[in-house]
């Protein structure tokens, strides 16, 4: 297993109860995992713990042979080799597309930076947009640039927080297959969180259903969602799209 998360627990300082309780998950290299749950289930907190933006109260996270955290070890975020695509893309508005992508390559040589920017722009099919600014791009293009920036340093693991929440429904449907193709072509192991089961069904190799900080179910889209099943029977939310409220 490439990623091994064991007995992970976390509680925010002002909370009486754990946000995450005894979370366990193993992921194969190159696998795309969706963590599916309604708002408040703890799914974004899982990403923050993996990225090193929060420190767990208990548990271990291993990526490859590298211990990211344990009860005695904590690797700083910048040393984890983990890329993250944020919900709002977090592109720097004053930087061109090219400079946004170069931002994570500060220790690379000028030649290697130039080559790598070209590689990832070709991967996301936006080679002609390197000199544009984020405000000159559509929502779908901004998302692909955010993906290119996250992929540029060649991360061990890629994390997505609600990757389609800022896209309209038609674009959301069109870009799912493209995003899966790009991720699979790189072979990078990926985890994305969402409230939308359609996203999970379209993108993920396996789905982790999270309820109140605990794993309720793990399986393929067919096993979790089926073709005719009503997901509302499994979680107390409306069918097809889980509540953000």
Automatic annotation (TrEMBL):
Catalytic activity entry: a quaternary ammonium(out) + ATP + H2O = a quaternary ammonium(in) + ADP + phosphate + H(+)
This protein's UniProt keywords: ATP-binding, Cell membrane, Ion transport, Iron, Iron transport, Membrane, Nucleotide-binding, Transport
Entry's EC annotation: 7.6.2.9
EC class (word) = translocase
Looking at the keywords, is NADP present? no
Q: Where is the ABC transporter domain?
A: 3-237
> Record keywords: Transport included?
yes
Q: Please provide, in alphabetical order, the Gene Ontology terms of the cellular component aspect for this entry.
A: membrane
Question: What molecular function terms (GO) are annotated for this protein?
Answer: ABC-type ferric iron transporter activity; ABC-type quaternary ammonium compound transporting activity; ATP binding; ATP hydrolysis activity
Q: Which SUPFAM superfamilies match?
A: P-loop containing nucleoside triphosphate hydrolases
Please name the SMART domains in this protein's record.
AAA
A Pfam match:
ABC_tran
Q: How does it assemble?
A: The complex is composed of two ATP-binding proteins (OpuCA), two transmembrane proteins (OpuCB and OpuCD) and a solute-binding protein (OpuCC).
Its recorded name reads Carnitine transport ATP-binding protein OpuCA
Tell me what organism the protein belongs to. Alkalibacillus haloalkaliphilus
Q: What is the lineage of its organism?
A: Bacteria, Bacillati, Bacillota, Bacilli, Bacillales
């Amino acid at each position: 297993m490439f990623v091994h998360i064991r007995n992970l627990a976390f509680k925010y300082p002002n909370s009486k109860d754990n946000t995450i309780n005894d979370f366990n998950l193993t992921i194969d290299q190159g696998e795309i995992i969706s963590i599916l749950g309604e708002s408040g289930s703890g799914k974004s907190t899982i990403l923050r713990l993996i990225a090193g933006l929060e420190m767990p109260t208990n548990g271990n996270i291993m990526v490859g042979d590298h211990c990211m955290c344990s009860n005695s070890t904590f690797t700083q975020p910048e040393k984890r080799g983990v890329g993250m695509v944020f919900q709002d893309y977090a592109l720097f508005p004053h930087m061109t597309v090219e400079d946004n992508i170069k931002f994570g390559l500060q220790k690379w040589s000028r030649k290697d930076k130039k080559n790598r920017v070209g590689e990832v722009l070709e991967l996301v099919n936006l080679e002609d947009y390197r000199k544009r600014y984020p405000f000159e791009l559509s929502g779908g293009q901004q998302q692909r640039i955010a993906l290119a920036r996250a992929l540029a340093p060649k991360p061990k693991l890629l994390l997505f927080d609600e990757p389609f929440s800022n896209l309209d429904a038609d674009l959301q449907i069109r870009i799912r297959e493209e995003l899966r193709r790009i991720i699979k072509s790189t072979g990078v192991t990926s985890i994305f969180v969402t409230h939308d089961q359609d996203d999970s069904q379209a993108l993920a190799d396996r789905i982790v259903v999270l309820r109140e900080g605990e794993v309720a179910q793990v399986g393929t889209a067919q096993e979790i969602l089926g073709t005719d099943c009503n997901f509302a029977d499994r979680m107390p939310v409306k069918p097809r799209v889980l509540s953000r409220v």
